[in-house]
């Protein structure tokens, strides 16, 4: 019996090949870009850079304080819809978290010869571990006592927390539900300016402390 073999349909030549739809769309989009689109792109890049900088600054704060604030702020502020009582509780939360950031800036940690991490508070006279059963050499305690830059670091930690609070829309809506035009400009510019200043000062005056809630430097060991 005869077997018939069907030949496939002729394929288009290179000259007849069509450009893919997505490629043509991208080309048309790039050719029809407007100054408004470029401006929106610049704004998006600025916002992304701001949040990246804020994420970096958040690493300078105790993790527990940041998590506590992020957990309680939506609850106490009722997602930004506050009455007098909720405003008072939200203000107390902000004050407690800010004070905690200030106080915890004077904490530090060290490792003993076995690699165990111990925390303590720095004072003007030296360093006192929280665990009273741990002993630290007088030389090591003297190196960890409070210095002039510790107060600067504590103040910067509070300012960083203020920046994070101002970037929280529920907090802003709680205290300024209907802000004026001038207040909107201040609330938009203040966190960015505050973040830039704190970043510069953190770089210019780095801290050597790794206190409660912060990363412990593995090179710090008690001899």
UniProtKB/TrEMBL annotation:
It comes from the Eukaryota. The keyword Transmembrane applies. It is found in: Membrane. Belongs to the plant DMP1 protein family. It holds the Pfam family DUF679. One of its GO terms (cellular component) is membrane. Residues 30-39 have a biased composition (Polar residues). It is a multi-pass membrane protein. It comes from Cinchona calisaya. Keywords: Membrane, Transmembrane, Transmembrane helix. Residues 1-39 are annotated as: Disordered. The chain crosses the membrane at residues 88-106, 149-166, 186-205. Its main location: membrane. This is Uncharacterized protein.
């Amino acid at each position: 019996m005869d077997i018939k073999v069907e030949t496939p349909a002729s394929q288009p030549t290179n000259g007849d090949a069509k450009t893919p739809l997505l490629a043509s769309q991208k080309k048309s989009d790039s050719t029809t870009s407007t100054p408004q689109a470029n401006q929106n792109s610049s704004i998006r890049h600025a916002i992304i850079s701001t949040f990246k900088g804020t994420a970096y600054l958040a690493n300078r704060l105790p993790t527990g304080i940041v998590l506590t604030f992020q957990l309680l702020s939506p609850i106490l502020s009722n997602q930004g819809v506050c009455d007098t009582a909720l405003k008072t509780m939200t203000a107390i939360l902000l004050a407690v978290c800010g004070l905690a950031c200030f106080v915890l800036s004077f904490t530090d940690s060290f490792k003993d010869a076995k690699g165990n991490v111990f925390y303590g508070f720095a004072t003007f006279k030296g360093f006192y571990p929280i665990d009273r059963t741990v002993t630290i050499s007088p030389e090591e305690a003297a190196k960890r006592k409070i210095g002039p830059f510790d107060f600067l670091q504590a103040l910067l930690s509070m300012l960083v927390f203020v920046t994070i609070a101002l970037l929280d829309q529920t907090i802003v809506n709680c205290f300024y539900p209907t802000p004026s035009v001038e207040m909107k400009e201040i609330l938009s510019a203040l966190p960015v300016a505050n973040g830039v200043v704190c970043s510069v000062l953190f770089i210019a005056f780095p801290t050597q402390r790794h206190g409660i809630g912060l990363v412990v430097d593995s090179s710090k060991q008690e001899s």
